[in-house]
Amino acid sequence: MRAPADTGAGAPREPDLRHHGDAEVRGADGGPADLTDLAVNVRAGTPPAWLKAEITASLDGLAAYPDGRAARRAVAERHGLPTERVLLTSGAAEAFVLLARAVATVRPVVVHPQFTEPEAALRDAGHSVQRVLLSERDGFRLDPGAVPEDADLVIVGNPTNPTSVLHPAESLAELARPGRTLVVDEAFMDAVPGERASLAGRRDLPGLVVLRSLTKTWGLAGLRIGYVLAAPETVAALERAQPLWPVSGPALAAAEACCTPKALAEAAEAAEEIARDRAHLLARLGEFAAVRAVGPAEGSFVLIRLPDAAAVRAGLRARGFAVRRGDTFPGLGPDWLRLAVRDRATTDRFVAALAAVLAAS
Fold first, then answer.
1. Residue 321, phi then psi, degrees to nearest 5
2. Is the pTM of this model over 0.90?
3. What angle do CA 147, 337, 213 make, to 5 degrees?
4. C-alpha to C-alpha distance for 140 and 136, rounded to whole angstroms
């Protein structure tokens, strides 16, 4: 049985923490719908051909049990860390489950709005979760002082899904202290040019746990690969909570391939391209008086507010576009939508559809 979340006084209803963007692109039969996908934050046109080739080559070894040592070394080298500070996981989502099960916590706090799986995993593990709700008035910016002093587990995204806010590294570092586990979800950090504000290579902050995903930039949502960066004792505790061979051979091959200098250079170029495409999307959204975009956005998605967003979402779907509803994120409501950043031509087609929907309403 899930423990209830502390939602605060006057909360209208409990958001559906299990709703994710992939639900927006399904048809009535549960299969893929014929829609342009702005709901899922996976980079379009991925995985690239060279990565597909690496994964395909790994299939010859499927008869053997997965051996993650090479991939673990590659991730460690990529972040300048020793291997004992790295744990490979079946996507970043598995890491949230491991943390909920393996980290002793009396007062866990999740900073919202953000990816909802961390709270769902904590509640599934029987924890009572307190939410710190960031305010639209402050641009959904984190004030470290808003986190209760006695919180012994704090989870925050950076850049945050769905707000696309990038919190300064200094603000996050203020949350670290002895006796507290600070989890920073950096699933979208490789979409930020220069990965500024990343804490991934830090060893000086007590209790720091950084989560990374290879899903978004490389288009590997179906393969499930991510990793944890943390102190050796934390990695060991999480590893004990994992089943045997949690990451498949093809996923390990992908992790190793995505940490090469060539791959990192390609990811850096992709981040710059995303930034340009995001600027174009924000400029086009600025043409609508009824639409307010949260900014400055730093991720591969943009959060917008507009009246009657549910009807707009339905109208966009009827015109061939899937967007992510925002009301399932704690701290948001029915007037919010999240849009994945796509190329300029796709954005222009989307803007034309949005204009038609708003005119009809």
1. -125, 130
2. yes
3. 60
4. 5
